[in-house]
Amino acid sequence: MTDTTISETNVADRPIRPDGMPAHYFQLDAAETMAWDLLENGAKSFKQPFHTPVLATVDEDGAPQARTIVMREADRETRILRGNTDQRAPKARQLAAESRVQLLFYDVDVKVQIRVTAKAEFLTGGDRRNEAWVASAPGSKVCYLAQGAPGSEHDGPTSGLPDFADNGQRVANSELEAGLKNFAIIVFHVEALDWLYLDSKGHRRAQFDYASGESRWVIP
Ligand SMILES: Cc1cc2nc3c(=O)[nH]c(=O)nc-3n(C[C@H](O)[C@H](O)[C@H](O)COP(=O)(O)O)c2cc1C
Q1: What is the reported pTM?
Q2: Is 94 in the pocket of ligand 1 (CB under 6 A)?
Q3: How confident is the model at residue 18, as a pLDDT?
Q4: Ligand 1 mean position, distance from CA 161 (Å)
Q5: 23-136+184-218: which CATH number, 2.60.40.1120, 2.30.110.10, 3.30.420.10, 3.90.550.10?
Q6: pLDDT, tens digit, for every residue of 181-204?
Q7: Is the CB–ligand 1 distance for residue 56 below 6 Å?
């Protein structure tokens, strides 16, 4: 018997469902459900690790650009995620030139990483964007009062906020409305998920491609 035969026999004999392991360890649909549970719960609570993924774009030179953003919305039915941002931020230009992005999530407690492949839609007006503004907390709205674009140089350390809004001062709602002109939303149309689950008995990885409708296990 050759080594190859031995290893093939071992693989075939391995139980598909190891004792005590959760369904997502051996069922594709359970892995997908878990992924969307994490995404939806992450958008609902700032305490969840999935609330603050990394958004990766490419810039005008083709170089990668990654930054944390807050997930404001996640919906498995429409396969849409949403974040808020400043229209003046460099990522606005990057997304106008290249709408393909990845969002990277990791939850250290459940030991799951998800890479979301999506097309980003950058909205600077319209009902959806205006509703997102109305739903924003005053503490979030105040950021959009910054007097220059995110990333623009300043002659000293600064929040960029006008004096009346600096140092954590309470800003009247009427004053906050001036930030609306800088406010945008990014709607992420999810095209694929790459789910990686870490386990000492053997990691598991699955991919869900919504364009083709195919899903599969892959080697982690
Ligand atoms: C915890 C955390 C949450 C953040 N949330 C957002 C966000 O929701 N939207 C956003 O535009 N930037 C957010 N930022 C700031 C971005 O990471 C980034 O610094 C900024 O948007 C400028 O990015 P850009 O130069 O690539 O456009 C967040 C940063 C941190 C650390």
Answers
A1: 0.93
A2: no
A3: 74
A4: 16
A5: 2.30.110.10
A6: 999 999 999 999 999 999 999 999
A7: no
